[in-house]
Every structure is written in structure tokens, then in C-alpha cells.
Amino acid sequence: MRSGLNSDLGFSDADRKENIRRIAEVARLFLDSGMVVFTSFITPLRSLRSYAATIVGPADITPIYVKASFETCANRDVKGLYAKAAKGGVKHFTGKDSSFEEPIEGDSDWVISTDEQSETESMDTLQQKILPIIRP
Question: DSSP strand E in the chain: where?
Fold first, then answer.
């Protein structure tokens, strides 16, 4: 999304909110057409997570907290954003100079701790949780 529809946005609070709004609106459009939608994006603030849920609709959202440290994300970063942020090249970057509010109990349906699981194990956990929901 950030390299296409949201390529005009940075990481300021206003840009983050607009990023979430656009993603949620697109998800809602696909849901309204009868599709199953998966999205993955960083929502650093509880207010942004609530905002996305309001747009998508509480009955159609299953928030999952994919827990990962800054270091884990940096090690897996294929775009080079974490390295750039570490050198000060990206302002307002989550985990570096912009905070992240961890979900509190009830904010997310599941937690997948990628610091404790391999990528394959994390994917397996996700599939075990998601498949029963999307299969009739």
C-alpha cells in the first residue's frame, strides 16, 4: 500500500491516520463485494486501531497482534526502511522515534509472537486460527 495508493504519505500522525483510513476503506469495499480480505499494517496507536475497526465494521474485523521487536523487524526488513530509520533517514518511524502502544487485553483476538517463533511457525499459527473462520 505504501508504494502505491499511499505513496504520498509519510509517518507523521496525520499521515498514519490517513494511511489507516485508506486501507480500511479499501478493505470495506472488497468486503462489500463479498470477498474475504486480509490486511497487514502497523497501527501504532489504540485510537488508530479503533478507527480502522469503525470503518471496516466490528463484525468484519479480526485484529491480530503480530508482536515483533524493532530488532526482529529490522532483521526481516526487505525494503531497507529499518536501516534507513536507524540512521535517522526516516522521521516518526515506529519503534525508533515514534511510539507503539501495545494492545491491551481485548484489543486483539490473538497474539503471534514472532520473536519466539520462526516465520514458518508464525504462519502456521496464523493459518490454524484463520482457516476455521473463513471456511464454511
Answer: 64-67, 110-113
CATH of domain 13-134: 3.40.50.300
- Cα–Cα distance between 61 and 57 in angstroms, integer? 7
- Residue range 36-53, pLDDT digits in tens: 999 988 888 999 999 999
Tens of pLDDT, residues 2-28:
777 888 888 888 999 999 999 999 999
- Dihedral sign, Cα of residue 101, residue 72, residue 68, residue 27: positive
Place of cell 479480526: 62
Work out the number of other CB atoms within 10 angstroms of the CB of residue 75.
10
C-alpha distances (whole Å) from 25 to each of 18, 40, 52, 57, 67 are 10, 14, 8, 10, 25
The C-alpha torsion from 60 through 65 and 70 to 71, rounded to 10°, is -120
| The C-alpha cell that represents 58 in the structure block | 466490528
Domain residue spans of the chain = 13-134
